[in-house]
Amino acid sequence: MSSWKKAAKSNQKVHRERAQPASRQHLGILEKKKDYKLRANDQHKKDATLKLLRKRAMNKNPDEFYHHMINSRTKDGEHHELDLDHSFSKDQIKLMKTQDIKYIAMKRTMEANKIQRLQSRLHMTDVVNETPNKHIFFLEEDQEPDEFDLAKRLDTHPDLIGRRTNRPRLEDLQKLKLDVVSPDEIERINQERERSYAELKKRIEREKELTIAQKTLEIKRALKEKRALKPKRVKKGTANRAPVFKFKFERKR
């Protein structure tokens, strides 16, 4: 009997899954019933969740208060947990602040080294020429101020009087051999110098900001230490200055 069943199965029609029609091949594989059940069950769960949330929203009391409101905020419709220092111990917080100060000090040192390299390369000659200062020359009694020749007194060319640095004398100018430089090369050098000065200015501002941030963190760390007398604030901190506090002298035991 069992052999007859096996023979009958060998002659029966093979049932295959219905394939996607050729006109709909661009839509991918045809969805089967098991795929539909997964998709339908997932949709039913989402609908049930939304229904429950709508019901809770309708039954919510607008004057209700719970303590989690203090530790969370809603921004653009999304809940965000506030980072509280209470999750760390005091020693851990102090260590993290110390690490922040060390990192800022390291960055400030790097900026200071870069500023020093730029200043040594640029020599700041333009700034020196723009700095106002005085140089007094004493004349003879019989000499009038209009007759005073500054170029002759300095022993240099009249076109170099405006310089305060790199102002060679006439005998040095006669020995000097000038290289022929094209106007394009001069323009390129001037542009490169302007870019270097702009970079130097930005790095000086950056170093100043890091210095203020470092001092502010150091003051905050000092304020958190236990003291018998509370320090008095002398000046409020701004973007260009760290806060200034006056600490009372405490005798160490």
Could you name the key traits of this structure?
about 250 residues, 4 strands, mainly alpha, elongated, about 50% helix, two-stranded antiparallel ribbon, single chain, SSU_processome_Utp11, nucleus
Oligomer: single chain
Radius of gyration: 41 Å
Helix-residue proportion: 40-55%
Low-pLDDT residue spans: none
State the total count of DSSP E strands: 4
Largest sheet strand order: 1-2
In one word, what is the shape? elongated
The assigned structural class equals: mainly alpha
The end-to-end distance, rounded to whole angstroms, is: 106 Å
Number of DSSP helices? 7
Instruction: Give average pLDDT, whole number.
Output: 78
What's the helix-strand series? HHEEHHHHHEE
Beta percentage is 5-15%
SSE topology:
Layout: H1 2-11, H2 33-59, E1 72-75, E2 78-81, H3 90-122, H4 125-130, H5 150-154, H6 170-175, H7 183-224, E3 232-235, E4 244-246
Antiparallel strand pairs: 1-2, 3-4
Helix pairs in contact: 3-7
InterPro entries: SSU_processome_Utp11
Main location: nucleus
Subunit structure: Component of the ribosomal small subunit (SSU) processome.
